[in-house]
C-alpha cells in the first residue's frame, strides 16, 4: 500500500464517522488535501480547525479552499498543534468528532521541517481532550524518514499508555511487518 492509499483509507474511515454539522480538526494542514476533505464532510453547517507551522502550507491551503468554495467553514491557524486547546473555542472542547494527523514533512516542501515527538505527543493528548465520546483520532506516521523512526517509537509508547477503558485503537500497516513502512493509527474514544 502506498502513502496515497493509506491517506485514502484514512479518509474512507473518517467519511463513515463524520456527519453534516460536525466539528473536525486537521492538526497537520500541509497542502490542505485533508482539510478540504474534512470541510466537505462537515458541510456548510460544520466547522474545521486547521493547524500548521508553515505559512506556505497555510497559504496553499487557503487558496485550495477558496477554489473549492470551502473557506467559510474552515479556520486556519499558523500555530503548533500542541496548542490546539488554546485556539479552539472552549465550548468545543470534548465536542469534536475527528482529529487528523499526517506526520512527517510537507510533500514538495522543506524536508527538514518535520513533526517532532516533543510537540506531537502533547498534541495527541490535546486531541484526546477535544474529541467527543465516540470521536476518532487518526495518525499517519512515517518511520522510514530521518527523525520519523524516533517519532514513531515515541508514538508507539504513547499509544501503549492509552487507557483501554477509555480508548480503543487499531494499527493499519501499509506493508505488514516492514518496520519502516508508513502506518495508520486509528484511536476511538469510547462512549
Ligand atoms: N495533511 C497534509 C500533509 C501534512 S505534512 C496534506 O494533505 O497535504 C505535515 C505537516 O505538518 C507539514 O506541513 C508541517 O509544516 C506540519 N507541522 C510540523 N510540525 C507541526 C506542529 N508542531 N504543529 C502543526 N503542524 C506542524
Description:
- The chain has 191 residues and is an alpha/beta fold.
- It has six helices and seven strands; from the N terminus they run H-E-H-E-H-E-H-E-H-E-H-E-E.
- Strands 3-2-1-4-5-7-6 form a seven-stranded mixed sheet, with helices on both faces.
- Helix 2 links the parallel strand 1 and strand 2.
- The longest helix has 15 residues.
- The termini are far apart.
- The structure holds S-adenosyl-L-homocysteine (SAH).
- S-adenosyl-L-homocysteine binds next to helix 2 and strand 2.
Task: Jot down its keywords.
191 residues; globular; binds S-adenosyl-L-homocysteine; single chain; alpha/beta; seven-stranded mixed β-sheet; 7 strands
Into which percent range does the helicity of residues fall? 25-40%
> Which structural category fits the helices and strands?
alpha/beta
Number of helices: 6
- Percent strand equals 15-25%
* SSE sequence, one letter per element: HEHEHEHEHEHEE
- Give the number of DSSP strands: 7
